[in-house]
Design a protein that fits this description.
Layout: E1 5-6, H1 26-52, H2 73-93, E2 94-98, E3 109-113, H3 118-144, H4 148-154, H5 158-194, H6 200-212, H7 215-238, H8 246-269, E4 279-281
Antiparallel strand pairs: 1-2, 2-3, 3-4
Helix pairs in contact: 1-2, 1-5, 3-4, 3-5, 3-7, 5-7, 5-8, 7-8
Keywords: Membrane, Transmembrane, Transmembrane helix
Region (Disordered): 1-21
Transmembrane segments: 28-50, 70-91, 121-140, 160-183, 217-235, 247-271
Length: 284
Amino acid sequence: MATPSRIPASPAKRKGGSQPPSIPSPRLFYVAGGLLGAAAAAVFIWLYLVGLSGSLMVELLPFLGKDFNYPSLPGVILLFTGVALFFGEMFRRGRLSQRRRTFLQGGSVGLEMSPTPLRYALLWMLLPVVVYLLIIPLAVHAETSGSAWGATVRGASEDFWTLLSLYGFLAAGCVGVFLASLLKRATYRRLAARGTIPTGGARTFWRLTATQWRLETWFSFISLGLFGVLPLLWHDALAGQKPFDDAALADLTGIAAACAVLAVITVLNAWRSGDPYGFAESVA
């Protein structure tokens, strides 16, 4: 394997007092991510208020056409927000390595990230928790109440509930990713220290699932995302509004539970890849 090339953890200078010009400052990406995140929040609030008023989002900007997917707009901005913040973190606390590989072998690029302090990880997790609570539980509670706010929620358009379902799923899914990360943080090194790293095909399997595809992230996101929207769907079913029949709701519950089990299994066995904690590889 090639010798890893270190990405400076900060704007630290090399000997001689010069900083490598090819490495941008992480602050640029943090600022970009912050601005994009604020824009995503502003667009979401705008669409939230439009839907809450009973208006249809398709009437907002007629020049975009009737087929424009307004609820997805904050999500697209959030995608670029995540990219910017990822690059900021990578340039701040990452270590890159490269090696010559064929396309089917994978692992041509590796990235090892030093862990975020636990208190900061918990603070980051608090953000999607709060967002989720403000989206789905608050709306469900309001609709069942006899308050003026409840009457406003009951008069909201279908676009409003579509928006809540989509971003409730995303927020809850992000919480799931954080929970999987915390479980992995608590168990990875301890399990690796007392276990025996497999060889041959077994290790290749775990490197593929844990180091390259990071399947615990996918399973935990899907699991908590589905569990997050189930209160809204079950509420609709109890109210006589059934976008899904009872069998479909039971199936979604089963899928969410199965993904949770798979996430835990993948997290608790990730050490079998033999790679250090915090290391990831490209699939190609």
